[in-house]
Fold this sequence. Notes:
Blueprint: H1 2-11, H2 26-55, H3 62-88, H4 93-115, H5 117-120, H6 127-149, H7 155-173
Helix pairs in contact: 1-2, 3-4, 6-7
Amino acid sequence: MRGVVSLAAAFALPLALSDGSSFPGRDYILFFAFSVIFTTLILQGLTLPLLIRKLGITHDGEADEEERRARLEANNAAIELIGKLRASGEFSSDTVDRLRAEYDERVEQLQLCAENPDDCRGEIATPQYQRLQREALRAERQTIIRMRNERVINDDALRRIQRDLDLAEARLTGD
């Protein structure tokens, strides 16, 4: 933003003075403003990746591991709560079992990521699982569009289902 303001200020200088003579040094001011902006913004942006590679700076994965541990602990706490709720009899066993299975799968995925961190890069699901889920979501999308085109469902139903699919896809990609 500052580069734009500097360049705008330089271009705001008048071409000529009130007596008709050209503004002294206007060309130099424009040249230097552009040069400074180019050097500070463009040149730095282009050379930074090269500098990072040259210095050997790499991602250590510590933040990903920290996130994985936090997710694992949070999921285990949820599993513990689900066990208590099951014992209370407040919820049907089918509902509790279904939710417990989801959390068990999450824990399993997190443990797989601990064993093969290069395959996960901080993601809950393995790349293979994500690819499979994307394919399933694509099949769902194609089916509901076909059903709408065949007038089995209306546009409102299509939009509601698409919204759910969009949310599922966003959770999958982390957006």
